[in-house]
Amino acid sequence: MTTHVPPPAVQSPAAAFAARYRATTIPPVDLWSPVLDRVFAHATVRNYLPDPLPDGTLEVLVGAAQSAASSSNLQLWSVIAVEDPARRARLAALAGNQQHIAVAPLILLFVADLSRAARVATRHGRPQEGLDYLDTFLVGALDAALAAQNAVLAAESLGLGTVYIGALRNRITEVAAELKLPSHVAPVFGLVVGRPDPQKPAGIKPRLPQSAVLHRETYGADGEAEAIAAYDEQFHAFQNEQGLPRQDWSSVLAARIASAAFLNGRERLADALRAFGFALK
Ligand SMILES: Cc1cc2nc3c(=O)[nH]c(=O)nc-3n(C[C@H](O)[C@H](O)[C@H](O)COP(=O)(O)O)c2cc1C
């Protein structure tokens, strides 16, 4: 397999925390590893070269994905690798014209897959009542997400870029038809994989301060408003550096949940899933 030089990692806990949180006070962390360098350096890539991926990339990424934990090892997920440019173009259109899907050479469609379990049960002559419950769908979606994130980390360690495509759920029925998904299989999201365009590097997007996310022993929201106000400022700086419009993170969040219209078709997801055979009891 062709090897890649991964993008420079941040290489120390202080640098990693500073990059991820833009914090002036860094926790006194002595624990560190090369994997943590990679994890803290994550950045979604939306600008790609059209170049093919090195031989073996797909197999390595799927192996990494399958190395993730799986609820009871039931492995209720599958992945469809789409390389065909015409199909990628159709998927790009279904995802709101996200051009990175058409440009990068590969999109992996992670699906919650109860159909394999149904086939196994049929071969064993057993009923399949358990497939009808919301929790079983959730297990498939969770397994798919955990697998995908392992693939993301693997890709980034090889110097490749990725972007999740949740927007494929906007028109999930057409996506399922495009992929010829059988009953009891539902797209969870896509994952574009490609070589990042070095002319348009992605930046590390800051995250909420840990004080807004980490609750010790019991939940508490004291100090949250101040933490989020500080984060809005850091978010402005990031947007500015990336040449993106000035936005408050908190205003974006509030707008996104203000109306079902922002779900862009996903407000009908439960109906679509039932049509796919998930009873979601
Ligand atoms: C489940 C999921 C779906 C996403 N869907 C999209 C998408 O459709 N298009 C896109 O450009 N980014 C998408 N993203 C990427 C997020 O916007 C991105 O992860 C977030 O802004 C944080 O930025 P970062 O990954 O660079 O840290 C998605 C991320 C996740 C986890």
What does this structure look like?
- The chain is an alpha+beta fold and 281 residues long.
- Helices cover 42% and strands 12% of the residues.
- Strands 1, 2, 3, 4 and 5 form a 5-stranded antiparallel sheet that branches.
- The termini are far apart.
- The model has no long low-confidence stretch (mean pLDDT 94).
- Bound molecules: flavin mononucleotide (FMN).
- Flavin mononucleotide is lined by residues 42-44, 46, 95, 98, 163-167, 189, 205.
Label the structural class: alpha+beta
What portion of residues belong to β-strands?
A: 5-15%
Number of domains: 2
* Helix and strand pattern: HHEHEHHEHHEHEHHHH
The count of strands amounts to 5
Characterize the largest beta sheet: strand count, sense, and whether it forms a barrel.
Answer: 5 strands, antiparallel
According to CATH, what is the topology of the largest domain? NADH Oxidase
**CATH architecture descriptor name of the largest domain:** 3-Layer(aba) Sandwich
- CATH H level, superfamily name of the largest domain: NADH Oxidase
Backbone shape: globular
Protein name: Nitroreductase
Pfam family, one: Nitroreductase
InterPro entries: Flavin_OxRdtase_Frp, Nitroreductase, Nitroreductase-like
Family: Belongs to the flavin oxidoreductase frp family.
Describe the secondary structure blueprint for this structure.
Blueprint (H helix, E strand, L loop, with lengths): L12 H9 L12 H7 L7 E2 L7 H10 L10 E6 L2 H10 L4 H5 L2 E8 L1 H9 L10 H24 L3 E5 L6 H7 L6 E12 L13 H4 L10 H18 L7 H8 L12 H7 L6
Antiparallel strand pairs: 1-5, 2-3, 3-5, 4-5
Helix pairs in contact: 3-7
This protein binds flavin mononucleotide (FMN).
GO molecular function: oxidoreductase activity
Keywords: Flavoprotein, FMN, NADP, Oxidoreductase
InterPro entries: Flavin_OxRdtase_Frp (IPR016446), Nitroreductase (IPR029479), Nitroreductase-like (IPR000415)
